């Protein structure tokens, strides 16, 4: 047990300093070497100082090793820190009742929805499952914490008319047009557009290489409309981020800035519902399925690790049923 903890603590310390290939080499070397040793910790017990949260540091270090995005890691770290501070106990003493009490308090203070509350429960569940699997705690407190029931919101893709309204609302702003068409044509995540580089873009062939979740590389393609606006927007630029700030020093746009561009276009278009980059990704997938694209192909284009993840877009929402009605029954 102490050998495992020693390796985990070392890897957690190094996760911020070294890249993944180096961490993999060290991880393998430590596993091989420590197999021949019996390690005993000087102090018995686990977290006696709940302020330092060493188990959380180990868990976050493992997330970095597994290539979780920085935004996901930050989200997990913030909530789990809040949880551990609220409960105020060493991790091995935390009960399911403690977690439920914290979730209820979090809901009351932050006015979060039931779906968000359940998401926080899943974060806690992944943390305590990790500790239990690695032997840091004897019992997993989440075993007695039930999922939070909520009615899943039906997220309807943009209709063709709404898409056209957004295109008209872009007017002659080349960057707005390029950003909108980039999302609609590729179905990319906002993080993938943030990290999109000109060095990976081939306008002649009409595609760009992006890095998705888990640092997985894939190719996404451009429509003719997207290509036209990209060519106008990029001009002679051949290196750096694809979408830049309009203000000096013209650095690559971050997630919030891209979200704000899409939100402002939708407001100018007079669209009442909330429009954001992931809704454009949803729209891309829905349109592709409506036109008959096979699920495995769409799954590859969207960077899903499983076709089952893509299958959510195949559900018969009102928009899809109307599309199929018009195709097969109307007239």
TrEMBL record:
The keyword Cell membrane does not apply. SUPFAM superfamilies: DNA breaking-rejoining enzymes. Residues 51-132 form the Core-binding (CB) domain. Residues 153-326 form the Tyr recombinase domain. It is found in: Cytoplasm. Keywords: Cell cycle, Cell division, Chromosome partition, Cytoplasm, DNA integration, DNA recombination, DNA-binding. One of its GO terms (molecular function) is DNA binding. One of its GO terms (biological process) is DNA integration. One of its GO terms (cellular component) is cytoplasm. Site-specific tyrosine recombinase, which acts by catalyzing the cutting and rejoining of the recombining DNA molecules. This is Tyrosine recombinase XerD. The lineage of its organism: Bacteria, Bacillati, Bacillota, Clostridia, Lachnospirales.
């Amino acid at each position: 047990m102490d050998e495992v903890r020693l390796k985990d603590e070392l890897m957690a310390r190094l996760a911020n300093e070294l890249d993944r290939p180096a961490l993999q080499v060290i991880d393998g070397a430590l596993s091989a070497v420590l197999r021949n040793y019996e390690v005993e910790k000087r102090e018995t017990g686990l977290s006696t100082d709940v302020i330092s949260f060493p188990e959380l540091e180990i868990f976050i270090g493992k997330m970095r090793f597994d290539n979780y995005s920085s935004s996901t890691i930050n989200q997990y770290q913030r909530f789990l820190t809040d949880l551990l501070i609220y409960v105020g106990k060493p991790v091995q003493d935390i009960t399911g009742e403690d977690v439920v009490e914290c979730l209820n308090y979090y809901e009351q203070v932050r006015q979060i929805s039931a779906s968000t509350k359940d998401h926080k429960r899943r974060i806690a569940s992944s943390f305590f499952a990790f500790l239990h699997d690695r032997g840091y705690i004897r019992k997993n407190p989440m075993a007695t914490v039930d999922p939070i029931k909520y009615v899943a919101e039906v997220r309807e893709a943009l209709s063709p008319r709404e898409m056209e309204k957004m295109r008209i609302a872009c007017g002659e702003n080349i960057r707005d047009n390029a950003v909108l068409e980039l999302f609609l044509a590729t179905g990319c995540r906002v993080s993938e557009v943030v990290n999109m580089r000109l060095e990976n873009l081939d306008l002649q062939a009409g595609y760009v290489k992006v890095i998705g979740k888990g640092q997985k590389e894939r190719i996404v393609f451009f429509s003719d409309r997207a290509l036209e606006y990209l060519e106008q927007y990029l001009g002679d630029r051949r290196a750096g981020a694809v979408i830049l700030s309009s203000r000096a020093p013209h650095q690559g746009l971050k997630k919030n800035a891209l979200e704000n561009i899409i939100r402002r276009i939708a407001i100018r278009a007079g669209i009442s519902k909330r429009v954001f980059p992931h809704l454009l990704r949803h729209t891309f997938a829905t349109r592709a399925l409506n036109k008959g694209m096979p699920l495995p192909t769409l799954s590859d284009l969207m960077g899903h690790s499983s076709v089952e993840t893509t299958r959510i877009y195949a559900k018969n929402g009102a928009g899809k049923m109307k599309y199929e009605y018009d195709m097969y029954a109307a007239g």
